[in-house]
Specification:
The protein is of the alpha+beta class and 90 residues long. The chain is 43% helix and 11% strand. It has one domain (25-88). It has four helices and two strands, in the order ααβααβ. The protein has a two-stranded antiparallel ribbon with strand order 1-2. It is globular and about 40 Å long. The protein starts with 24 loop residues before the first helix and ends with a strand.
Length: 90
């Protein structure tokens, strides 16, 4: 980690959301209980990094509709090399 702090001037996100923290209860519950989702969300900004591994586990263990499953799979493919997906929760 760097010791320098930089001002953030722009955060860009995808047009459509991947999941909804209020409505996708089973996914939210799994990510929070297994991977501490809420402990990791930054205050104010609402950024959270979810590992590709956590998302893959969610696909295997959580009951979800096809639209949510496809969105998560897209995120995994887009961020596989990084090893995590950064979500902006607003």
């Amino acid at each position: 980690m760097s010791v320098r702090a930089y001002r953030v001037t722009k955060i860009e996100h995808e047009e459509s959301d991947t999941f909804n923290l209020w409505h996708d209860d089973k996914l939210r519950y799994f990510l929070d209980n297994e991977y501490g989702l809420y402990e990791q969300i930054t205050e104010g900004g609402g950024l959270v990094d979810v590992t590709v591994e956590a998302l893959q586990q969610a696909l295997e263990k959580v009951e979800m509709d096809d639209e949510l499953r496809e969105a998560i799979q897209k995120d995994i493919e887009a961020c596989r090399d990084k090893g995590y997906v950064t979500y902006y929760c607003c």
